[in-house]
Each structure stands twice: as C-alpha cells, then as structure tokens.
Amino acid sequence: MKVLLIGLSHKTAPVEIRERLDFSSNALRSALTHFDSTHQQAHLPDVTEGIILSTCNRTEVYTAVRRPEVAVPAIIDLLSHACATPPGDFAEHLYILQDTAAIGHLFRVACGLDSMVLGEPQILGQITEAYEAALSQKASGTVLSHLFQAAIHAGKRARTETRISVNHASVSSVAASLAQQLLGDLTSRQLMLIGAGEMGEIAARALLRRGLTEVVVVNRTFENAEVLAQSLGGRASSFQQMPKLLPETDVIITATGAPHIILNKTMLIPAMKERPDRPLFIIDIAVPRDVDSNVTELPNVHLRDIDDLQEQAADSVREREQEVPGVEAIVAEELEHALVWLSTLDVVSTITDLRHQFEELRLQELDRLFHKLELDERERELIAGMSHRLINKILHKPTLRLKHEATYGDGPAYTSTVRQLFDLELKKREDGFKVHAPVGLNGRHHYVEDSG
C-alpha cells in the first residue's frame, strides 16, 4: 500500500484554475463517498482511503492506494467530475507525491510552511475539518487517520514551540492594511462585508482594529448576517438592499461560497455615478471569485483578489522566516515517527499473515494425522498443544527480528523478503500498509515526485 497525493495550490495554479477545482460542501461529501469501501459500486480502483483538503489556496486529494499507476487517472477523473472541469484544463498544474514526499508535504502544510502567507493559522483548522469530513463519510481509515492526526499534532507543535505565527500576516490582515493605505483614516469609512464566513470576519476585525467603525454585513441567510453583525458592532442587510448601500460604502470585502459572480461592473455603475471622486476598495478573498475583474474599468474602483495579496504579504513575514529551520526540524521529527509507524504497521500485517499461514499448515497436518490414528480426546489435545507451541517457538525469533528492523533498521526490506520467501504476497491483508519503491508515473503534470 502507498500514500498518494494529487493536488494543486497557489504555487502551481492561478486563482482562475483553483476556483474551478473548489469543492462545495455537497460536492465534497459526494466525492468522499467514492473512498468508502462499504460502497463497492462507487469505489475507486486500487484506492482504499481518501481525504480531500479544499481551501482557497489548494485542492489536494490524499489517498491510500495499492497501485498508483491505476489510481492516479481515476483520482484525476474524480476531480474532473466533482468540479465539472475537463482534466485538460488543470492537469498541467497538478503535483503528484508518494509515500515520504506526500506525508512530508502534508506535515509542511499543517505547519504553515506551504501557505501563501508563511505560518498562517487557518490552515490547521482546515486540515482538521477535512479529516473530520472524511471520517463522517467513512473515507478515512487506519493509515490516513493516523497521518492526519500526526500532521495536526505537528502543526500545533510548530505554533507553540516556535514563533512561526508571530506578527499575524494573514491574507485578511494584509487586505485590511492595503485598505488603510488607499483610504487613509478609516474612522469615517463604511465597510460592506458580503458573506458571514470566517475569512471575511477576520478581515473585518482587522479593519476595525485600524479604526473603522461602520460595518454592514450582507448575507443570503439574514439570520447569519445578524449574528455576525452584532458581534462586529454593525448592522445586517440582505442582498436585495445591497444596491442602495453601495453609494455610501468605502470598502467591500467579499468572502462567500457562491459558485458564481455576485458583483460586477454593471452593478457598480449607478453607485459610482453618485460618488465620482470617492474611491471604492474591493477585496475579493473568495475562491471561486465573487467579483468580476471588469469592475476595475470604472474610475476610482480598486480591486484586489487573493492572488494579488500574496506579494503584499511577503514583506510581513520576515520575522517568521527566521523560524523556518525550527519548524522544518519539527516536520522532520514527526515525519520520522510517522514512517516508523507505517513500517511497523506493515510488519504487524506480515507477522499476522505469516502466523496465519503456519496455523493453516498446522491444522491441515493435524487433521491428516488424526484421520490416520485412533486417538482419544486427551491425546488429540496433547498433540495439538505441542504443535501450537512448536509453531510459536519457530516464529518467536523471526517475529522479534521483524519488529526490531521495523523500528531501528530496514523494515520494508525485511518484510518484502519474508513475503517472497513464504509466498505471502497474494495473501496480503487489505488493511496492511507497505512501503514500496516508487512507481514511475508519466503524464502532463506540473511535477512528479516520489519518496526515492
């Protein structure tokens, strides 16, 4: 069994590609059912477990698979169908990682080392949510559950043992800083927050800390808008009222989960005619994007999307960069523990299969012997007990050696040899995990890397 990761991120794909591979809640639940082995009719070939991590900056599918060369095209096809996007539109932006490389990548993501803004804290919660979603659909099993729990542990260590998250510089806070640079004093400015999610709330609070006092929360579910508006000290409104609010709005933050554009040039023209000399700053931190880029054709309308904020955020992370070596050390330590566990898991499976084979042979020979000899029950018990003890003594030292090699030596090589010697390959249990040499993968992907 191998750990396989197929994904794309802000490092390999622009926002117009990432937003097309964004999973809605329903699409995520539906896709995860394909990893549930209890639904054999929907089960992906050679895939036994799966977890999908879908954020504004990345879409990654983590799986436990038997044969990567079979699983890779099936997973890409799943991405295509789930997100209604032809593979040709995103395949060149994908990365494919296996075993050590895949697990190490997960740990680096959890620790904030692969984020658009170094050390940002939201990703740890998003990984936890992805894991819980997979559990709810019975898509995560022994292997991925252990690895995601280990990744979450590594992420918590990174943020408590280092200063990787010091001087908070998330996309939201950077956006608030840009608004202040453009508009100057924010005390008399009005913010329209479209969407009642966490990202928008963080950005709104960042503006409030910079002096802004007027907040209007617009959301399709008015009750949710009211709850958030109350916590921000603002007021709630509906989408129907939004055109009336635009003329008095200075900053718009959009962070909805809408699958389509909710704000465009046509909608802004009437409002900007009422305020021709007053700038409007729009911050679109949604993926898919909420705002059509054509709004910038209007005078005094300024738009920044999530990719535009990356360069601005870079200047805010210098102190965090000094913490990277310490975080990398945590990743390396946790990765080593995970690999030892995986090797041990494979050894346990091998030992179980070996003992099962010996037990089958023992019972067959006992049955043959008992058919040839006339023995009473006591004699049968004595012979059976002797054969059981003999098998245990024969396997005792090999078992200890395999466990020792799994922890301190070359466990995969030893288990592979044992399986070949005793012809256990075809009898390998489905829940066993085995670390194989990488399987070469050919395709039109951004890069292909395996554990080496």
SSE topology string? EHHEEHEHHHHEHEHEHEHEEHHHHHE
Query: Strands of the largest sheet, in order across it?
Result: 7-6-5-8-9-10
Fraction of helical residues:
40-55%
Q: How large is the share of residues in beta strands?
A: 5-15%
**Secondary structure: number of strands:** 11
Q: Give the oligomeric state of the chains in this entry, treating copies of one chain as homo and distinct chains as hetero.
A: single chain
Helices and strands: which structural class?
Answer: alpha/beta
Give a quick summary of the entry.
With 452 residues, this protein is an alpha/beta fold.
Description of the molecule:
There is one protein chain. This protein is of the alpha/beta class. It contains 16 helices and eleven strands. The strands form two sheets. Strands 7-6-5-8-9-10 form a six-stranded parallel sheet. Strands 2-3-1-4-11 form a five-stranded mixed sheet, sandwiched between helices. Strand 2 and strand 3 form a beta hairpin. The chain is elongated, with a radius of gyration of 28 Å. The C terminus is likely disordered.
